[in-house]
Amino acid sequence: MDYYGKHIKKLIEEFSKLPGIGVKTAQRLAFYIVNQPEEVAQRFSKALVEAKKYTKYCIRCCTITDDELCPICKSEKRDKSIIMVVEESKDLVAYERTRQYRGLYHVLHGSISPMLGIGPNDIRIKELLTRLTDDAITEIILATGSTVEGETTAVYLSKLLKPFEIRVSRIANGVPVGGDLEYVDEITLLRALEGRTDF
Q: Are 104 and 82 in contact (CB under 8 A)?
């Protein structure tokens, strides 16, 4: 039975397609939007469309940005000899919150997962290898998650990076197994970064 009408039903369906959003949360979000003044819904709609339209990937580190180079890659204050490899842009943000890491990043946009049909060619590994032609790079920090997929990706990358004769390290334990980096507190992330080991 259609309790709310087709427009609310459609809005609930769209919200429930978002990751981590169940039907009840989707209903709350839909009702919130509908009960706001029209200008709130218009601003929300405009922000959504503009984010989709104008967001692109940094040509160097592959994080999401609205310019050719992200602010981190543009910065003259960053240590350009170290690259931290993360799975997603949200992981980069998690490390930036520690305010301790001063190197550069590389965002893979996923991890190797044979079960899901995601192989090395489906994530941004080629772009990372292209960056390694720069002689200034002395260390790669593998900061993929401690999930099976994250570990698989780290092992694959460590083997791939061996011929480059640069230090390859892995973030230390402290990040919970099976956990997403975006939910880990700054102190745990900082300890994991400081306790990294050669891979």
A: yes
CA nearest neighbour of 120 among 130, 109, 106, 131: 109
Domain ranges of the chain: 6-54, 70-198
pLDDT tens sequence across 113-152: 988 899 999 999 999 999 998 768 999 999 998 788 988 9
Amino acid residing at 3:
Y
Distance CA 88, CA 64 (A): 9
CATH, range 70-198: 3.40.1360.10
* Contact status, residue 63 vs residue 87, Cβ threshold 8 Å: no
Structure tokens, 150:
């994250």
Q: How many CB atoms lie within 10 A of CB 11?
A: 18
Compute CA 82 distance to the chain's CA centroid, rounded to the nearest angstrom. Answer: 18
pTM, two decimals, is 0.76
